[in-house]
């Protein structure tokens, strides 16, 4: 497999369908952080980067990104698709959200310092790859909980194209330093997908997201083919519901369900103590449910979109 220095990686001249190793920079022991990359390109615009593994324990995004490399034929491509399934290799190898090299969240580094290794990785990726794109799709999962597959954007101009992907769309507020926030500041059209939970692969959800991304690629003329119109429910607000006490959580609601204000969400059983019923403070669509049963007081058990 060809190795390329990230500074020499040029999405404007790359052509064909190929796998690469992108070398970024050297760690303390002189070993190089090297990223797996798949390119499917006719050497034209529009250019898109699809990324997973910013957080090393979020495997659905990694799995989806590498599947897209295998499933999209070069003949059906008009533009340039850059697939990066593992943006943070040290964290992926440790199977943890951030790597223990510096415990820095890669998804908060893009417009910041570059002194620590993870910050340096973020800066190199942004300068040499992301800043040259027309589009970015960045795929994540929940950690202790599970997300219903949905898209999030921070620019309302993206609603129409985002609606090509998944049935639920959240227009979020900007999060400082995140890849999609940083890219939107450079006017790169950016989309975040949340799908399933950490340290797991949900093949049903994965298939839904792959089909959604393929439809988006057709709708943006990056690939050829018939676009399917989709019904999308759009939300402007998210509320996270915290647990009122520490203990063992049991949900009695399902992902995707619409719940009314006052409806029971689940129960939290205190260690050697009382069980409390948790009720929803608002009406909304359940987009996230905590799957880890052990919960501390104040930790979120549910996210609602409304
Ligand atoms: Zn993540």
From TrEMBL:
- Which terms are listed as keywords in the entry? Hydrolase, Metal-binding, Zinc
**Cofactor(s) the protein needs:** Zn(2+)
Any Pfam family hit: AstE_AspA_cat
What GO molecular function annotations does the UniProt record carry, in alphabetical order? Answer: hydrolase activity, acting on carbon-nitrogen (but not peptide) bonds, in linear amides; hydrolase activity, acting on ester bonds; metal ion binding
This protein's source sits in the domain of life called: Archaea
Q: Which InterPro entries match?
A: AstE_AspA_cat, N-alpha-Ac-DABA-like, N-alpha-Ac-DABA_deacetylase
All copies of the Succinylglutamate desuccinylase/Aspartoacylase catalytic domain together span: 45-218
Annotated protein name in UniProt: Putative deacylase
């Amino acid at each position: 497999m060809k190795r390329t220095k990230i500074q020499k990686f040029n999405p404007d001249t790359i052509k064909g369908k190929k796998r690469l190793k992108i070398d970024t920079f050297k760690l303390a022991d002189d070993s190089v952080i090297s990223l797996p990359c798949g390119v499917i390109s006719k050497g034209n615009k529009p250019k898109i980067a699809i990324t997973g593994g910013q957080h090393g324990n979020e495997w659905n995004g990694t799995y989806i990104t590498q599947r897209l490399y295998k499933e999209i034929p070069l003949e059906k491509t008009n533009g340039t698709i850059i697939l990066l399934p593992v943006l943070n290799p040290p964290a992926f190898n440790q199977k943890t959200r951030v790597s223990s090299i510096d415990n820095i969240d890669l998804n908060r580094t893009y417009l910041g310092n570059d002194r620590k290794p993870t910050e340096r990785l973020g800066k190199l990726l942004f300068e040499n790859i992301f800043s040259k794109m027309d589009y970015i799709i960045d795929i994540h999962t929940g950690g202790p909980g599970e997300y219903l597959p949905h898209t999030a954007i921070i620019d309302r101009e993206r609603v129409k194209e985002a609606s090509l992907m998944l049935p639920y769309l959240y227009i979020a507020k900007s999060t400082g330093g995140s890849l999609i926030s940083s890219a939107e500041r450079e006017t790169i059209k950016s989309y975040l997908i949340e799908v399933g939970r950490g340290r797991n692969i949900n093949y049903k959800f994965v298939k839904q997201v792959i089909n959604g991304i393929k439809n988006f690629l057709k709708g943006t003329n990056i690939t050829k083919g018939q676009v399917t119109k989709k019904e999308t429910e759009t939300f402007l607000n998210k509320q996270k519901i915290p647990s009122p006490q520490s203990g063992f959580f049991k949900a009695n609601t399902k992902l995707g369900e619409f719940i009314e204000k006052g409806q029971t969400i689940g129960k939290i059983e205190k260690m050697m103590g009382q069980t409390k019923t948790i009720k929803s403070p608002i009406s909304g669509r359940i987009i996230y449910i905590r799957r880890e049963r052990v919960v501390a007081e104040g930790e979120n058990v549910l996210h609602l979109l409304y």
